[in-house]
Amino acid sequence: MAKIENYNFKDKKAIVRVDFNVPLDENGNITDDTRIRGALPTLKKILADGGSLILMSHMGKPKGKVNPRLSLLQIRDAVAKALGRDVKFAPDCAKAQEAAKELKPGEVLLLENLRFYPEEEGKPTGIDKTDPGYEAAKKEMKESQKEFARTLASYADVYVNDAFGTAHRRHASTAVIADYFDHQDKMLGFLMEKEVKAVDNILKDIKRPFTAIMGGSKVSTKIGIIENLMDKVDNLILCGGMTYTFAKARGGKIGDSICENDKLDLALDIIRKAEEKGVNLVLGTDCVAADSFSNDAKTMVCPADNIPDGWQGLDAGPDSILAFREAIVPAKTILWNGPAGVFEFDNFIAGSKAIAEAIVEATDNGAFSLVGGGDSVACVNKFGLADSVSYVSTGGGALLEAIEGKVLPGVAAVEDK
Ligand code: AMP
Q1: CATH of residue 165
Q2: Which one of 24, 231, 309, 352 is at 20 to 30 Å from 42 when CA atoms are compared?
Q3: How many structural domains is the chain composed of?
């Protein structure tokens, strides 16, 4: 695999898979441009070398159909402003041959939303998985996907993948396209390199003690990661809504708290595995319970396994916060995914805020800290602490799959051949 820092893009046309899937308000204005800013180091390097840029991305889920509300034309001006130069626009990403051909060094062409074509995702549309013709349709779609990827590849001399957010998908633009470039002409962008390095710090280059904090609403969505981390961590803090599935599994009374009743055995299994492997499992012992799911609810602090009916645990209590801090502050490697409470309500942010602050303290003392997964990123942003941890990942699903130990197709595609 080529390395972007060593590559000379002079007079080369580079097709770059970026993640410009930025949130828009109802008038099509960008509400958070983090993803555009995240791609700038890669894009600026290519332009500074004297190359030209063909930018491709998806936006939203148009499901293989043209949808003007998800047009990337809406973000063209923001990209132009960020790059400080004009950005041409190709209104059909699969018919941009002429526009690509005419591109001169230093020029930028933005392609329309890749997902206006079903070939991008490569899943057959309009046919149910249970339909007898599904397998044939799938095979046919895979062929069209290759054709689509080949068309995109034909625009450029070099392929750069800088879209970590979609690296866990084997889509035309994220992986299949790489087959049409020689190994010296395909590479990860700077953002992708940083993300891959951050995951390596967590999974391979571990400084101990290693503390992972998994929160959020459900244990079921985090089980793959919890299992993979169990072999690696010294301390595992499980917090947020999943606290109550564990409390109930151990015979506790959890009132109206969120609970996955079909995951009680799984919770006991996790407790058992932690014991077997010598992992210090930290579960909240107390909570801030509320008499309704609202910011203005009446609250009280009570044991997480003795919550009265009509009440629900919405945040970690003070004893739990102390226990979390004890496991976080001395750590040298930290991973945080998922809030410790309903942080969207200002009255239930204390647990998540304490975790964020303890991570910052540990980071100041030399720990490597990775915060990833949508809601914990929202937390550190809300607390103004994003710049005080070692790394905030841009990838939700991709980060989680990487931490589960899965190979990301978007990374493998440029690495392998
Ligand atoms: P996830 O998408 O699984 O990471 O979950 C994130 C969501 O979990 C956030 O929207 C939180 O509000 C929610 N959450 C955290 N703690 C609780 C809790 N105790 N009860 C209900 N929801 C919670």
Answers
A1: 3.40.50.1260
A2: 24
A3: 2
